RNA sequence: GGAGCGUUCGUCUAACGGUUAGGACGCCAGGUUUUCAUCCUGGUAAUACGGGUUCGAUUCCCGUACGCUCUACCA
């Protein structure tokens, strides 16, 4: 590599960032960091009609949550700003003019209505060499007429003049040699009537000005690549062109096709990285973050969609990803998104993450459920007890609420059928034993001791542990779930244990 | 319609001419856990099709089929 690696992610701020977008960011980021290069965020907001308030902030927030912070961006600044294309409007004009001067572009005066009419008239109409002379532009019109139109401020766009019968090709880092015949590429608009560039002009000009060395984007861009190659050739020289890498698409889980926001709504899983509130529709689209994904897991699962390190390893920290990432291990074909596997990644990361780091995140969901946490250390301890049975953060609520308050309902129906006086006698005495401990100034005891004592008491009542454990569990947590019974007793202590036994005994007797 | 890209278990993928085609998720069965989950063991299941090239093709070439993307003064 002859110069410092510089890559960019260039979204248009029109809504939430979906999986595919974040993965593009991730591959950019990993590639840049692997090569000790720079990652730039550039906002492609040249379409003023599609501007959505808050979308740019959302993108920045999302990158921050994922830990994929750009080195240069509208927010961070940098030596190649501004990083919003709308603020670079004047820059593009001179390159469009240069193309006109060189004869590589021309003015086109056709109105949108003219074009619509043409498209209706001619099936598969393309504004290209085939029809160029039938249209109203500076190639088909005489010089005087063009001058007159310009003088009268007739609205116009600038279009690229695609040469005939040339082969345009690029060496895509992922796909290898890809070539196109210019006879099938149309004269794309470069500069719109409002003076703003289209993507085609802007991406080439900005990649050049921002010294981008490698340009990554979704595979959907491949068909327009010849336009960009041509522009590079005309403007800056092919030897200056960044290396292209067209990333495979992320597909919907059922059927085929690109994954969309709708698929998530339809199938019940998030597609956006974070909750996205659309100010135009007043709708919020759920995000991975709010669904209870850890950013580490989110990044990890995205990385594995289309990339692997060649071994069986699947769980990667961001540092490991940076160290091992390489473009030649990126898959060519699109990948269907599998939400079940996504949850598996999250479960792995929950198990892997320190309890005290999990605590504030879990706390959020506990707060939402109105479960009061008085002692942060207690929370950390409880997280350690239940984390391995949680795939998603919100599951901590059901898995741990009984550690903080008595269960709101007790599944006595599961106890009642085998309930008898013998068992009643046992639990009655158990409550008394614990009460006397409280009176003796004892708050709790280690789980192993509790278990031994419990079994001894059971033997005294001629009851087997197997007959006692499930009823006891249900009395404490309300149902057939949760960690070890005596760990629960140890955590909630004698006082609450006694209260829950007595409450259950009451319920059982009233049945 | 046209162009480009793609095609290994249901899904994510490994195997850069020679493997009983490997791993993971899911699913099923068993074990551990006197609950559930975790964990462990085992099982299920794939090279789209047809031609070449080759001693030998998942792998290289050609064709077919299928799928996807694009085909806007959107990105």
Give a written overview of the molecule.
- There is one protein chain.
- This protein is mainly α.
- 45% of the residues lie in helices and 10% in strands.
- The strands form 6 sheets. A 3-stranded antiparallel β-sheet has the order 3-4-7. A two-stranded parallel ribbon has the order 1-2.
- Strand 8 (214-218), helix 8 (225-235) and strand 9 form a beta-alpha-beta unit.
- Helix 7 packs across helix 8 (225-235), helix 14 packs across helix 15 and helix 19 crosses helix 20 (485-510).
- The longest helix has 26 residues, at 485-510.
- 38% of the residues are buried.
- The structure holds one RNA strand of 75 nucleotides.
Task: Report Rg.
Answer: 32 Å
CATH superfamily of the largest domain, by name, is HUPs
> How are the strands ordered across the major sheet?
3-4-7
- General form: elongated
Care to count the β-strands? 13
Which CATH architecture of the largest domain is right? Answer: 3-Layer(aba) Sandwich
Describe the secondary structure blueprint for this structure.
Layout: E1 6-9, H1 19-34, E2 38-41, H2 55-66, H3 89-102, E3 105-108, H4 112-121, H5 129-132, H6 143-151, E4 157-160, E5 167-172, E6 176-181, E7 189-191, H7 199-209, E8 214-218, H8 225-235, E9 243-247, E10 250-251, H9 261-267, E11 276-278, E12 283-285, H10 288-291, H11 295-303, H12 318-324, E13 335-336, H13 339-352, H14 355-368, H15 376-386, H16 395-400, H17 421-439, H18 447-460, H19 465-477, H20 485-510
Parallel strand pairs: 1-2, 8-9, 10-13
Antiparallel strand pairs: 3-4, 4-7, 5-6, 11-12
Helix pairs in contact: 1-12, 7-8, 11-13, 14-15, 17-20, 18-20, 19-20
This protein binds one RNA strand of 75 nucleotides through strand 6, strand 7, strand 13, helix 13 and helix 19.
């Amino acid at each position: 590599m002859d110069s410092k690696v510089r890559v960019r992610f260039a979204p248009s701020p029109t809504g939430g960032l979906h999986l595919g977008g974040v993965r593009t960011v991730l591959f950019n980021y990993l590639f840049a960091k692997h090569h000790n290069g720079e990652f730039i965020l550039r906002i492609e907001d040249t379409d003023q009609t599609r501007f959505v308030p808050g979308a740019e902030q959302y993108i920045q927030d999302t990158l921050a949550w994922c830990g994929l912070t750009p080195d240069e961006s509208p927010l961070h600044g940098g030596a190649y700003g501004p990083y919003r294309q709308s603020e670079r409007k004047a820059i593009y004009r001179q390159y469009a003019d240069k193309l006109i001067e060189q004869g590589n572009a021309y003015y086109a005066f056709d109105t949108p209505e003219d074009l619509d009419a043409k498209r209706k008239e001619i099936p598969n109409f393309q504004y290209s060499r085939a029809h160029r002379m039938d249209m109203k532009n500076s190639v088909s019109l005489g010089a005087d007429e063009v001058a007159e139109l310009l003088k009268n401020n007739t609205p116009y766009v600038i279009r690229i003049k695609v040469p005939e019968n040339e082969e345009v090709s690029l060496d895509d880092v992922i796909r290898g040699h890809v070539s196109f015949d210019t006879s099938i590429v149309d004269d794309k608009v470069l500069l719109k009537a409002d003076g703003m560039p289209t993507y085609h002009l802007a991406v080439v000009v900005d990649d050049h000005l921002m010294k981008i060395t490698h340009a990554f984007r979704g595979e959907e861009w491949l068909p327009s690549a010849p336009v960009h190659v041509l522009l590079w050739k005309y403007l800056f020289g092919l030897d200056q062109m960044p290396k292209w890498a067209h990333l495979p698409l992320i597909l919907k889980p059922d059927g085929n096709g690109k994954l969309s926001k709708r698929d998530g709504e339809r199938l019940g899983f998030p597609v956006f990285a974070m909750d996205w509130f659309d100010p135009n529709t007043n709708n919020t689209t759920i995000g991975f973050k709010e669904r209870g994904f850890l950013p580490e897991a989110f990044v990890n699962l995205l990385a594995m969609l289309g990339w692997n390190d060649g071994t069986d390893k699947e769980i990667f920290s961001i540092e490991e990803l940076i160290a091992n990432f390489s473009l030649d291990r990126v898959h060519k074909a699109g990948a269907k998104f599998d939400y079940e596997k996504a949850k598996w990644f999250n479960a792995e990361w929950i198990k892997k993450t320190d309890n005290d780091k999990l605590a504030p995140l879990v706390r959020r969901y506990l707060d939402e459920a109105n479960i009061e946490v008085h002692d942060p250390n207690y929370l950390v301890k409880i997280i350690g007890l239940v984390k391995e049975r949680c795939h998603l953060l919100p599951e901590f609520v059901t898995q741990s609420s009984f550690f903080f308050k008595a269960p709101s309902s007790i599944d006595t129906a599961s106890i009642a059928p085998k309930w008898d006086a013998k068992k009643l006698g046992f639990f009655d005495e158990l409550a008394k034993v614990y009460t006397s401990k409280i009176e003796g100034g004892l708050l709790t005891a280690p789980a192993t001791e509790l278990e031994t004592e419990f079994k001894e008491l059971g033997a005294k009542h001629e009851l087997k542990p197997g007959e006692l454990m499930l009823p006891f569990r249900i009395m404490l947590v309300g149902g057939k779930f949760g960690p070890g019974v005596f760990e629960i007793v140890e955590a909630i202590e004698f006082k609450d244990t006694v209260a829950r036994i007595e409450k259950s005994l009451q319920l059982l007797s009233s049945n």
